[in-house]
Amino acid sequence: MLGKLFKLLFILAILGFIGLVGFAYLGPELGFDFAPPAQEVRMPVTLPGQ
């Protein structure tokens, strides 16, 4: 009984991994954009000794 449960969990984990990889590849084709919004960041830097 416990062996069947582990087998089922293993199969579900493999299917979930395949689904995640497939979504990562097909997501941009389906209209999902995974890129973070680009913005310029400027921060003043004070170097020691000045």
From TrEMBL:
This is Uncharacterized protein. Keywords: Membrane, Transmembrane, Transmembrane helix. The chain crosses the membrane at residues 5-26. It comes from the Bacteria.
